[in-house]
Specification:
About 45% of the residues lie in helices and about 20% in strands. By secondary structure, the chain is α/β, with parallel strands linked by helices. It folds into two domains: about 5-260 and about 475-485, Glycogen Phosphorylase B (Rossmann fold, 3-Layer(aba) Sandwich); about 260-470, 3-Layer(aba) Sandwich (Rossmann fold).
Length: about 500
């Protein structure tokens, strides 16, 4: 049912008028399902046969790509550079529709508002968020550009699934352009409590943008409850935690904890070449030493520096020595143009140097630090080799690394040390849960993990693997899409 112009906000009315002719001319090139994310799940690689597209690493990509290969869909997003985009193209069974961003738009929309305003604010303000009006207008304009691409790409009464904090205004804009479609939004990072969210000068606009969706999904029940609370406080929305009534529509709000392709990781971990690679890692690091592993983006929310400090104190306490244990930290480069990330890299690398200088001996390096991306085979081999996996962000929406590690442990051994401030802690209750802000507790918990008996490891890992197996990425996506298809629309 098409709404009258009287029921639209000025922004919605303008967008609707601008879209009528454009989307009518492209009816031949549409999909039943359209995914919108800031980045397309691709990157260019230079191989022997020339430049090729390759699926990118990352939580969103690893979660969605396996599902989208099984349905006909289009993925709309930015290619990660300021060059003119290519025309839409197919890769790995998915239609990709590039969106162009200029260098200035990247700086203000992506590096500025998205990652220096929203990212720190939504992660408990671990770093003070910056509120600059010059960043807000590009955020609005880029959201409108994505909404128009979605309006042009989705079939009549189709589904549009908007992903993450970069595109929170899209649902309202798209609803004005295409009131016939079902719109879902999923936030991959935490949604903050009211006392933090209320600091945002554009809080009402963000909430109105999200309320344009039929389904608004979060990683945890707390995130969903926080959103419902601020909507009732700062907009005219009424209702409950699970369902809001807003401008004549029902907006369902819920937790949809994301997951991984369990069978893929479990199967790959048993492949002979991966098994051999894991054995080689163990030999190179020392057959008699236990391996503690961390795998993270190099981000200040991940607690890498605090984790290293805890490991340093574990060695200093004499509970474990460099002859008995080795720490491997993979830090994937991230947002390297942003000053906070440059400072973090310097601090982490200083910690690594200090630990190795203090405790290292010839042939025994306490910390092996890799500042680079690893392909999936290398990661799975490392997961398989590690005796202890340390996942200790200060705040994380979910954290799929924890689930990937569990999926690879078909031998039933291995210990997961997990921050209680991750979304995955709500599900992986048999992990050793820890407060990552407490260095003493973290050091003691790593020590407990290293001391754990095989019988206790197997008991805990059996429970962890069942949880991840029973709630894989396919069930996550199916649950969200089913909820979107079944949504009643207007109240």
């Amino acid at each position: 049912m098409t709404r009258t112009s009287a029921s639209l906000t000025p922004v919605q009315a303008n967008d609707a008028a601008a879209t009528v002719d454009r989307h009518a001319t492209r009816a031949h090139d549409r999909s039943d399902l359209v995914i919108l994310s800031n980045r397309l799940p691709l990157q260019r690689t230079n191989e022997s046969g020339g430049s090729k597209w390759k699926t990118s690493p990352g939580g969103l990509v690893s979660a969605l790509t396996p599902v989208l290969r099984e349905v006909e869909c289009t993925w709309v997003g930015w290619l990660g550079n300021s060059r003119r985009p290519t025309l839409p193209f197919d890769h790995d069974g998915v239609r990709h529709h590039p969106v162009e961003l200029s260098r200035e738009e990247i700086e203000r929309h992506y590096e500025g508002f998205s990652n220096r305003t929203l990212w720190p604010l939504y992660h408990d303000a671990i770093r003070p968020p910056e509120f600059h009006r010059r960043w807000w207008r590009p955020y609005v304009e880029i959201n409108r550009r994505f909404a128009r691409e979605a309006a042009d790409t989705v079939v009549e009464s189709g589904l549009v699934w908007v992903q993450d904090y970069h595109l929170q205004l899209v649902p309202e804009m798209l609803r004005a352009m295409r009131p016939d479609v079902r719109i879902g939004f999923f936030l991959h990072i935490p949604f903050p409590p009211a006392e933090l969210f209320s600091q945002l000068p554009w809080r009402r606009r963000i909430l109105e943008g999200l309320l344009g969706a039929d389904i608004v999904g979060f990683q945890t029940p707390n995130g969903a409850a926080n959103f419902s609370q601020v909507c009732r406080r700062y907009t005219e929305a009424t209702g409950t935690r699970q369902q809001l009534k807003y401008r004549g529509r029902c907006v369902n709000v819920g937790a949809f904890p994301i997951s991984i392709d369990f069978d893929l990781f479990a199967t790959r971990a048993r492949e002979p070449r991966i098994v051999k690679r894991a054995e080689n890692f163990r030999k190179r690091l020392g057959d008699q030493r236990k391996i503690v592993l961390g795998v993270d983006r190099l981000d200040y929310t991940k607690g890498i520096d605090r984790r290293l400090q805890a490991y340093r104190e574990l060695l200093g306490s004499g509970r474990r020595s460099q002859d008995e244990v080795v720490f491997v930290q993979v830090a994937v480069p991230s947002r390297e143009r942003v000053e906070d990330y440059q400072e973090l890299r310097s601090r982490v690398e200083q910690f690594v140097g200090e630990i190795n200088g203090e405790f290292g001996v010839l042939g025994r390096t306490p910390v092996h630090y890799l500042h680079k991306s690893l392909n999936q085979d290398e990661l799975i081999a490392l997961y398989s080799a590690a005796d202890v996996m340390v996942v200790t962000p200060f705040r994380d929406g979910m954290n799929l690394v924890a689930k990937e590690y569990v999926a690879t442990r078909s031998d039933g051994l291995g210990v997961l040390v997990l921050s209680e401030f991750t979304g995955s802690a709500n599900e992986l209750k048999s992990a050793l849960l820890v407060n990552p802000h407490d260095t003493d507790e973290l050091a003691a918990t790593i020590g407990d993990a290293l001391d754990m008996s095989e019988a206790e490891q197997k008991k805990r890992m059996r429970s962890l693997r069942k949880t991840v197996r029973d709630h894989d990425v396919y069930k996550w996506a199916q649950r969200f899409l089913d909820a979107l298809r079944e949504h009643p629309g207007r109240s």
